[in-house]
Every structure is written in C-alpha cells, then in structure tokens.
Specification:
Number of helices: 1
Number of strands: 36
Oligomer: single chain
Structural class: mainly beta
Distance between the termini: 77 Å
Radius of gyration: 23 Å
Number of domains: 1
CATH class: Mainly Beta
Largest sheet: 5 strands, antiparallel
CATH architecture: 8 Propeller
Helix content: under 10%
CATH topology: Methanol Dehydrogenase, Chain A
C-alpha cells in the first residue's frame, strides 16, 4: 500500500515539474528583463540617451591598427550606426545579415542571423545600432519594407532582445522601427516606429521585458517622418525630443501614467534631420539639419536660442561636450554638394567646432568621405571615420582621424577595406577606437 502511495506522490511531483517547465518555456520570452544601461563602455548609439557621442576615457597620443575581425557581412554598414561595447569589452555590431558579438581580441563569439534578408533587389530596409542594458541584455531593431508605394504601408520590422551568450529572450513585432532603441534609468525601452502611413510616427515605450507600456502618436510630418530621437529623464517624467524636416517636438510623459503632452516648435523649411542632441549645461537641445543649419533650443519651451548656418550638408549626428559641439559637413560647390555629380568624386569634409553660444571656433578639413558622426573623449579629442576609393572596382580604404581641441590633426590611421562605408567610431575602455564595415577594426596605442 505504501508503495502505491509513494509512486503516486512521485508522479504528482513529476507532473508539477513538467507543468512549471512548460510554463517557463512558453513565457520566458517575457520573463527576461532589460535593466538600465549601467557600466557598459558605450552602451547605445551615440553613447547615451542624449546622443552626445562622448566617452569619459582618454584616447591615444598616437595609434596603429591593433586587429581586425573576420568578415561580418557582404552588405555595407552606414554612418548612422555604430558598435556598442559592454563592460567586459564585448562589442556588438548589427549588419544587414545579422547581429555579431565580438570578443575584445577580435574573434567572433556568436552571431544571430536575421530572418530573411533586409535588403533584396530594389527593396529597402534597415538595421540600427544595438543597445545594452546594465545586465548585459542586448537589443537590436530591424526594419524591412518593399519598394511598392505608398510608403510605408508595407513596412515591417522587429526589436530583438538577446542574452550576453546569444540566446534570444524576446521579440517585439508591432510597428516598424525608425530609430535605435534608447534605455532609460528604469530600463524602459524607447524608440520611434512607423505609424503605418506616410509621415505618421509613434513613440513606442516597452517595459524591460518587452511588453508594450505606451504607444504615443507624434505630430504628423509632410515627408518621411521622424527619424532622430533623444531622451532625458527627470524625477517624475521623461522627455523625448525628436525632429522632422520642419519642426522639433518634445513629448513629455509622467511616470505616474497620466496623459502625455506634446510641445512643438516650427523650424522653417529644411531637408531631413541627421541628429538631435541634449546639452547638460546649459539645459538645451541641439537640432542639426541636413542643409547644415544648427539650432540651439531651450529644453523646456523649445524656444530658439540661436541658429547657425554651417558650410555644406550634414549627414550624421553631432558630438557634444561641456565646452562645444562638433559637426561634420560636406562642402557645397555652386549650390550643390561637392562630388554630387559622381559618387567617386571624393571631396574633403569639414569638421567644425562650435561653442554653446553658436560661435564657430575652427573648421578643419578631413580628406575623405565622412558619412559618419564624430566621437569625442574626455580630453576634447575628436575621432572621425571615413573612406576613400578611386573607382568602383578599386580597393577601398577606411580612415580614422584624431583631431585635437585646437583643430590640429594629431594622427591618422588608414586600413584597406572592402567597398563598405564605415560605421561611426566608438571609444572603449583604455581609449581604443572601434568601427566596422565588412569587419570590425580596433585602433589604439601600439602594444610593446
């Protein structure tokens, strides 16, 4: 009799264990959470939620190529993406082929291949810079859409979350991402997504476990929609700043769950917006337009403090320190961008140092194509990546320039590369500079 009781009890225990395991397996995609970005060296695109492109490290006085990784993808990266770096030195790079984890020595730790192809034939698509939570969770957004118009009714995309070991934790599938994800101090995930029709954009806010918290409609635009976002968190609310071709918007939502408010400021007629950045002292917002117009706005009222027209067109975010902004433009010749008549007519770009009062202190020529955003270290040294190529069939070269606070070029490193535009540079611990195109490259102090 006791034998049958013991057997029944064992069966009940096994059934209970099986039920628990089944429940965990079905819900584990939302049981994993993303903590706030913490000790990672460069945890998200442009280093932080304010898009400053600043790292509190000191770069090298001189530099060499330290290593290059194995090939990542046959599809080129673009200047509006960059690697991100975890606290242990692991780099994460998003390509049109997939997400790669790169060890500090340049070897590939793991990769995840995105389903299907983000770029096929004449179809257009996109992949964005990853972001890292303080627990090491890696987020990456992808976007796919077909060439049939009207755009973007046929948009699609996903936001993936991975463990540091490469296990997929969860996937968010509603809405086509338009920006890299930002992670606030509570681990909430913010990004812009397509609202499903031309010029309609939503601010999507997810919990650390990937569940939808808010979806807030942004003001409609007359063109491609909103594509630049920055975030600043206060004690009782979070402010998200984003810009279109004709206006900048501040969306403020209380942490208590009350209704969000939207404030807008018209900026005139411009082209698309490469970047939005948030200053700390003073408390301001910077908006950079593609035509080279740079605005400083009051962070509370969005009133325009000043406007500066820079020479040439801007294609990527500025970098921001306590002393100045650094902006890269492509000069114009006879009203058109230099080299516009042919892609291979490479023209020197210009790196500008602009004070917080709008004064251009200096402008230095960078002798290559620079479709990327600069990075700046704690000493005020600015790092720029670009590329050169003679003809479509020739060898390409990627370049890294270091410019001192006085505008002098401190050093330059050239590396042969495949026909791919490099990503924007990032700074890791020890001052090593990383970027990628077909491979990941590490540039830094020569090892004795």
């Amino acid at each position: 009799m006791n034998y049958w009781k013991i057997l029944a009890a064992l069966i009940l225990v096994l059934v209970a264990v099986w039920a628990v395991c089944l429940f965990w397996n079905r819900t584990r995609g939302h049981s994993q959470t993303v903590a706030l970005a913490g000790s990672a060296a460069w945890p998200m695109f442009r280093a932080d939620c304010g898009n400053t492109g600043f790292a509190a490290v000191r770069g090298p006085d001189s530099a060499v190529l330290l290593w290059r990784s194995d090939e990542l993808s046959n599809y080129p990266a673009s200047g509006d993406v960059s690697p991100v770096i975890d606290s242990d030195g692991t780099l994460y790079c998003s390509c049109t082929e997939g997400l790669y984890a790169i060890r500090p020595d340049g070897s590939i730790a793991w990769q995840f291949k995105f389903p299907g192809k983000l770029l096929q034939g004449h179809d257009r698509g996109g992949v964005y810079s990853p972001a890292i939570g303080s627990d090491g969770t890696v987020l990456v957004a992808t976007r796919t859409f077909v060439s049939d118009f009207p755009w973007p009714q046929r948009c699609g995309g996903r936001l993936y979350a991975f463990s540091p070991q490469g296990r997929r934790l969860w996937t968010y599938r509603k809405g086509a991402p338009l920006t890299s994800p930002l992670i606030d101090q509570e681990g909430r995930i913010c990004l812009l997504t397509s609202g499903g029709s031309y010029g309609v954009t939503d601010l999507t806010v997810l919990s650390p476990s990937g569940r939808l918290v808010r979806k807030l409609a942004m003001p409609e635009t007359e063109s491609w929609g909103l594509s630049a976002i920055a975030l600043k968190q206060h004690a009782d609310n979070t402010r998200v700043y984003c810009a279109s071709d004709r206006a900048v918007h501040m969306l403020e939502f209380p942490h208590s769950g009350e209704e969000a408010t939207v404030l807008s400021q018209a900026l005139g007629t411009h082209s698309w917006v490469p970047g939005v950045a948030i200053g700390v002292e003073p408390d301001v917002v910077y908006v950079l337009m593609n035509d080279g117009t740079l605005y400083q706005l009051d962070a509370d009222s969005l009133a325009v403090n000043w406007r500066r027209q820079l020479d040439g067109n801007a294609r990527a975010n500025p970098a921001l320190t306590g002393d100045a902004l650094y902006v890269i433009t492509k000069p114009q010749v006879n009203g058109a961008s230099a080299g516009a008549s042919g892609f291979w007519e490479h023209t020197p770009h210009i790196l500008h140092r602009v004070t917080h009062t709008g004064e251009v202190v200096w402008s230095v020529s960078i002798p290559c194509e620079v479709p990327t955003a600069p990075a700046v270290d704690r000493g005020g040294r600015v790092y720029v990546t670009g590329f050169t190529a003679d003809t479509p069939g020739s060898k390409w070269s990627s370049h890294v320039y270091c410019v001192l606070p006085d505008g002098q070029v401190a050093w330059h490193v050239r590396v042969p590369s495949s026909p791919c535009s490099p990503s924007s540079p990032v700074l890791g611990k020890g001052g090593t500079i990383y970027f990628y195109s077909d491979r990941v490259y590490a540039v830094g102090r020569a090892v004795p």
